[in-house]
């Protein structure tokens, strides 16, 4: 179940006897979610109002799904009401976003972003927010049949009067984006009566909660259409804020003739690349001057193949961070720097002539200078190579030093790893990246975690899923040699564990036999059977992930420790150039990347026996039924 479920009468009783917050907190903890003081305050102040309104309208039997978790994400909706349409007798659902705001205005004349009193930074217009939820649910839940007539949306600002949020009404409302204030309570109650009959909503709630879930739209599968035709991705909350901030910054930079940068930070699967492609697609369709750049050969080459398919113009939109050494200031309107944690000190490499290398500018200066609106999307825990320096602090400080205003957006939601925020937090604690301690994974019903006793067991499990329920890949830390192909064109099985041996992914861009070139290991079906490294896995996702934890990361005395001497990565072998502390961080970040590529499950195998035992003790899962997915034709 993805929500706390009760009738309106039941919710009212919990509010009256003072146990509402306690019950919701306990349920959130059972589901692997922490609860902030702000959430508790919100529950205590908003949910009793909603419950009383439903009771006052005679709708005490309407079912209320509190903190409903959207399928395949960690995003939770305040409430979904389930009942029966009084006119047709059909199921009827209403998504409700509860706001405690008492004062809000348009953010710099935007009709999608709002400034809220005592809240830092812009927020998404609540009508847009709830409309996005409705679009997302209609897209993913089979029970709705892609029929918007069953699902409605409303934002309820129960503390506000109209004059203090007047700007919010400037945006035309739809049946999925209506706004009600406390001053309009009478209209709100009439709206509830128009949507629900005074009968039990138990059966409609059953159908909603047990609905099949359509598979998520894979980024690369829709990339070409995103650039050529229309938006195929639904952005939610902070994702939509980031998108609107970029589009807003473009207009402001043009009218005010002043540069502005946007920095978007988020963990794996938080939607950074979806935001990047959404912005790129909108601007490309408008024939605006925009480029997309990364520091990853695999990611850029894959985007050229998939997103730029059939169009040399679209392929030319995808560049590398080191492509702009000779660029003039403000050459283009927008530069989208995806995977910006891979920004380096400068763009020179071993092929750069010495004369140019000696006068090379900082790479950040080149990127910021190039566009009127440079956009950086990054995850600070994905810095995996010495010399990579992309972080919110570094980029913001550099931009401000150049006199460029900076907007920062943090993405908190999880769209990879089955939408399991709990799994991402578990990985962070396991690796000690945010100061946490390793904890037991008991499962959250959204993401499958297993520990294999052998590489053969791990590969067999993944092979079964590769054949029946999606994509699967194996990856590993860089703890084995990496040989060139044999003269006969076959790959050397360098990753050897006992009697089991498999090759690394192809090192070059050209295929070797059936094995795809390095850039396409994660996306070509023939990538299964080779072991991927962090550079071919980073930026990509697949349904099922197998991760081999090599001898560079072992469990000792109840926690994981790194051993740099076990790494085969030449860039971190020299203690003179890279200190032990940085190597420790890079190795942990490497496994953070590998452990967060899977969308439905991860299988762990550690070569060190003590580490395997350590992981077995941490992963104690009661297996729950997998989410049911519809199979779509085509």
TrEMBL record:
It comes from the Bacteria. Residues 258-408 form the AAA+ ATPase domain. It comes from Micromonospora parathelypteridis. InterPro entries: AAA+_ATPase, P-loop_NTPase, SLFN_3-like_DNA/RNA_helicase. This is AAA+ ATPase domain-containing protein. Pfam families: SLFN-g3_helicase (PF09848). SUPFAM superfamilies: P-loop containing nucleoside triphosphate hydrolases (SSF52540).
């Amino acid at each position: 179940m993805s929500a706390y479920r009760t009738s309106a009468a039941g919710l009212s009783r919990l509010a009256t006897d003072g146990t509402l917050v306690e019950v919701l907190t306990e349920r959130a903890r059972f589901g692997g979610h922490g609860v902030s003081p702000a959430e508790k305050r919100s529950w205590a102040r908003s949910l009793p109002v909603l419950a009383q309104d439903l009771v006052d309208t005679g709708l005490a039997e309407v079912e209320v799904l509190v903190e409903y978790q959207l399928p395949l994400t960690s995003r939770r909706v305040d409430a979904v009401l389930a009942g029966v349409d009084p006119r047709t007798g059909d199921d009827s659902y209403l998504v409700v976003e509860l706001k405690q705001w008492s004062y809000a205005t348009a953010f710099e004349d935007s009709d999608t972003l709002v400034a809220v009193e005592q809240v830092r930074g812009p927020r998404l217009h609540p009508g847009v927010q709830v409309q996005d939820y409705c679009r997302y649910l209609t897209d993913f839940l089979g029970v709705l049949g892609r029929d918007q007539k069953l699902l409605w949306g409303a934002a309820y600002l129960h503390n506000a009067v109209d004059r203090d949020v007047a700007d919010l009404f400037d945006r035309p409302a739809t049946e999925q984006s209506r706004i009600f204030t406390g001053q309009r309570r009478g209209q709100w109650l009439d709206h509830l009566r128009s949507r629900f009959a005074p009968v039990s909503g138990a059966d409609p709630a059953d159908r909603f909660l047990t609905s099949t879930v359509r598979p998520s739209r894979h980024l690369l599968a829709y990339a070409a259409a995103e650039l050529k035709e229309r938006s195929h991705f639904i952005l939610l909350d902070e994702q939509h804020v980031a998108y609107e901030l970029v589009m807003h910054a473009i207009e402001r930079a043009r009218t005010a003739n002043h540069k502005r940068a946007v920095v978007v930070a988020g963990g794996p699967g938080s939607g950074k690349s979806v935001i990047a492609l959404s912005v790129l697609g909108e601007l490309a369709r408008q024939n605006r001057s925009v480029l997309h750049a990364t520091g990853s050969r695999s990611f850029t080459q894959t985007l050229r193949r998939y997103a730029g398919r059939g169009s040399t113009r679209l392929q030319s939109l995808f560049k590398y961070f080191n492509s702009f050494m000779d660029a003039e200031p403000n050459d283009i309107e927008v530069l989208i720097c995806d995977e910006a944690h891979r920004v380096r000190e400068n763009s020179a490499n071993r092929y750069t002539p010495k004369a140019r290398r000696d006068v090379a500018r900082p790479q950040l200066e080149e990127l910021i200078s190039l566009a009127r609106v440079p956009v950086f999307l990054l995850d600070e825990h994905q810095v995996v190579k010495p010399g990579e320096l992309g972080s919110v602090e570094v980029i913001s400080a550099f931009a401000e030093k150049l006199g460029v205003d900076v907007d920062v957006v943090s993405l908190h939601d999880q769209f990879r790893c089955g939408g399991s925020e709990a799994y991402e937090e578990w990985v962070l604690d396991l690796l000690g990246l945010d100061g946490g301690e390793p904890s037991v994974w008991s499962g959250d019903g959204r993401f499958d975690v297993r520990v294999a006793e052998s590489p053969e067991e791990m590969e067999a499990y993944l092979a079964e899923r590769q054949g029946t329920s999606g994509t699967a890949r194996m990856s590993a830390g860089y703890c084995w040699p990496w040989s060139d192909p044999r003269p006969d064109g076959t790959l050397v099985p360098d990753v050897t564990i006992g009697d089991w041996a498999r090759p690394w992914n192809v090192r070059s861009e050209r295929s070797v036999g059936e094995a795809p070139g390095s850039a396409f290991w994660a996306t070509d079906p023939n990538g299964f059977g080779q072991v991927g490294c962090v550079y071919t896995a980073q930026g990509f996702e697949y349904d099922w992930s197998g991760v081999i934890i090599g001898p560079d990361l072992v469990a000792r005395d109840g926690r994981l420790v790194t051993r740099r001497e076990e790494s085969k990565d030449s860039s971190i072998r020299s203690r003179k150039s890279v200190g032990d502390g940085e190597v420790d961080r890079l190795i942990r970040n490497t496994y953070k990347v590998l452990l967060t590529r899977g969308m439905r499950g991860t299988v762990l195998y550690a070569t060190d026996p003590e580490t395997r035992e350590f992981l077995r003790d941490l992963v104690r899962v009661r297996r729950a039924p997998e989410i049911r997915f519809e199979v779509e034709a085509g």
